[in-house]
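Researcher: Please translate sequence to structure tokens.
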Amino acid sequence: MLTLARNPFRRLDLSHAGVIRLAAAVVAVAMALYHMWMIVIGTPEAFIFRGTHLLFAMALTFLLFRRVSEKQADALPGMDAPPVAQGPPTLLDYALLVAAVAPVIYLFVNFDYVVNRIYYIDDLSLADMAMGALLVVMVMEATRRLIGWALPITAIVFLAYGLYVTKDPERMLDQLFMTTEGIFGAPLGVSAAYVMIFVLFGSFMERTGTGQLFMDFALGITGHTAGGPGKVAVVSSSLFGTISGSAVANVMVDGPISIPLMKRTGFKPHFAAAVEAVASTGGQIMPPIMGAAAFVMAEFLSVSYLQVTIWAVIPAILYYVACFGAVHFEAKRKGILGVPRSELPRLGKTLSERGHLFIPVLTILAVMYAGYSAPLAALAGTLACFPVAALRASTRGHVTVANLIDAMIDGAKNTLAVALACACAGIIIGMVALTGAGIVFTQAVIGLAQNSLLLALMLTAIAGIVLGMGMPTTPAYIVMTALLVPAVIKLGVATPAAHMFAFYFAILSAITPPVALAVYAASGLAKSDLWITGWAAVKIGAAGFIVPFMFVYEPALLMIGDWPTVIWRFFASCFGIMLLAAGLHGYLLRAASLWERAVLIAAAFCLVKPDWTTDLIGLALFAAIIAMQWKTRDPWKRAAQPLPRGEAESRPARPRTG
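Model: Translation complete:
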């Protein structure tokens, strides 16, 4: 298999496949170094910077990802694990590689002509049109090889629509190829300026052993509590998700450890897989380092990435509070205990041996809060990874030249799907801008919703989930922003809330059947039924589907507004989300009956609705259930689960009655 999983520099292989591996490794390392150096000296003109980014991405894609069988595509769904071709390139592969890079090189060679011409006014030459058409085709083909047919087919539909509306292919090629409003537009600019360096940071963190630190840290904090392994999955996935930005990658790193541990302590396989899938998916919304679409949002809204993270903090906390609560109440209802402390890593020892690996993350935060740009902050964190790992003997073994090269190769490879998705999304955005399709869609949504904001939000949410089923989060969010978000804003929603709403539902497709990539990955590890796991994930992540509606109706949850309102809404929403988890999983102080579960869910919805009257009703319902359960609870009743060794002797005897 032609792959860069192992560093090709370690052993020279002069076979055809070996030379290609070496060439791809050189390109990957050059790509990583180029982007780091551009942050240091300042990015060049948009065409040059974005074009070079696309040039690297296209070259690596056609070197590594080629003939894909159905079996490979089924085994490696989505952008998180693109299928790798078998064997060395053929003559056709080399021809496609040349066809992919030639249009970008053409722009570079004719750069002065490109930037000085007046688009839509100056006619395109025959060479311009040929190269433009070739780039459009090759971008869609490269995207297909990495993430499947959904996004290229969407682009083809918009191209057909553009041709129907304008009846001017020359003008379409002008928009897509010769301006920064098409393929070389803002999405590709975000991939080049932000995504590459943050993905590279994640690769450096992984290569220096941070994943194990996160797992041991989570085990030390929550492993001993009721359902501890499930809570470990929640904590470790939220930590790792901040550096991976990929739900499936997160599952594949944390899942092999957390899922067997959850199953061993009593969780059913489908529930264990669902917990891991939901917790891993939340990594994209968890500051300080969110998914790639967050950087696109910052660009679209013309705000700093730091501002986006501020908006995201409370919704992310609510998401993980719900996930944590679901695990806790399910564990209490099933009588599932934690892991004995003797089997857990000691928190103090973990921090003393590997706690210094948190320094790169803290470096990013410190640089961003000092007022510097997000790419510069990510570069500082990236450059700190290996020196920090060298500080202690426990992590010094990771500090090798080979590991450093592997980290750069991984970073470049992991960026490819996002880069090509952004380039292909640029085709869609270009056609929307050229034809005015955004206005048409806005009017259609408003017409269907009949000026009802709730109905418009529900239509947008469904569209986000459907789009996310077929394409990665970033292009799904970009398409929603172009077509649906304007309608929601026109109905009175605050612009940040509208964009965050689209962002959330583009992400939540990863846990929403029938196409739920994070669930697929976790279910494979747990050997559980896909559909049962999928619906369990929806139940655990129920708050994720409600939180976006909450911050649309109450922007205080995005920290927009006065602080007393922000603080009260935060605590009321946390409380409501916990009651929702209790109601859905049937436990508060004891197992809840059906009517008690219904009252708990009603109380939850009262508390999450931004209104003092409903808050008081929710608190009253909660108080009634608490009083009833307190009276009828049995503090000695525990499910018939085998106790870990050493705990049987410590359980107090139940007093005799009668």
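Researcher: Any highlights?
Model: Residues 468 and 506 are 5 Å apart (CA to CA).
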